[in-house]
Amino acid sequence: MPQPDLVIFDCDGVLVDSEIIAARVEAELITLAGYEISAEEIAETYAGLTFKDILLRIEDKSKIPFQASLIDRAEELVDRKLRSDVRAIEGVREAVASVTAQRCICSNSRSERIEFMLEKVHLLPFFAGRIFSALEIPSKKTKPAPDVFLRAAEKLGANPANTFVIEDSVHGVAGARAAGMRVIGFTGASHSYPGHADALTEAGAETVIRRWAELKSVIAALSEWSADA
Prior knowledge:
- The chain is an alpha/beta fold.
- It has 11 helices and 6 strands.
- It has helices at residues 19-32, 39-46, 51-62, 69-85, 92-97, 111-120, 124-127, 147-155, 170-178, 196-203, 215-228; strands spanning 6-9, 102-107, 131-133, 163-167, 182-186, 207-209.
- It has a 6-stranded parallel β-sheet with strand order 3-2-1-4-5-6, with helices on both faces.
- Helix 9 runs parallel beside helix 10.
- The longest helix has 17 residues, at 69-85.
């Protein structure tokens, strides 16, 4: 059976159901700062981006200037909510364990946040020493830039063309595709929305799964398809 060199998991909204928690905090802060927005709109339009990038995009669209202190406030409040409320997505532990190839995480979150979330949901042993935060790589370019994906492949000796990435956001899919990697979309978290799967496919995902039980067979099928191509 052909095997991928590497399987990369996004963290937020893929391993842990954190996107909706962050979106609720961020929507409240942005609304209080003068731009009314819902958690659902943040999840649909801006999932996968850092809060700083979300603010910059909203500033550009609305022409409302936001105070830089909002970023630190959001980080503090989101961390607090995640420490108390974050949960693993159903079936993820078995899905991760089923991956026999090398595995790692590529995320726009800080490694400290990734680690405390994974520790809380008992997933950290699967990824210890293989967590790549876009905020902490040399270029510091976050998704949708491909840099964090390419950094992981380089460090782990993987061919990007034989690397699979599991992503829940359009921005993450775009970054992985720009890195020359193959993408499986994931829509099984609480922030998923109508049209989510179509959006991921349009961004470049080869297929989309909603349940973690599908992962093993999908990777096997796509690996086989690549070997036959």
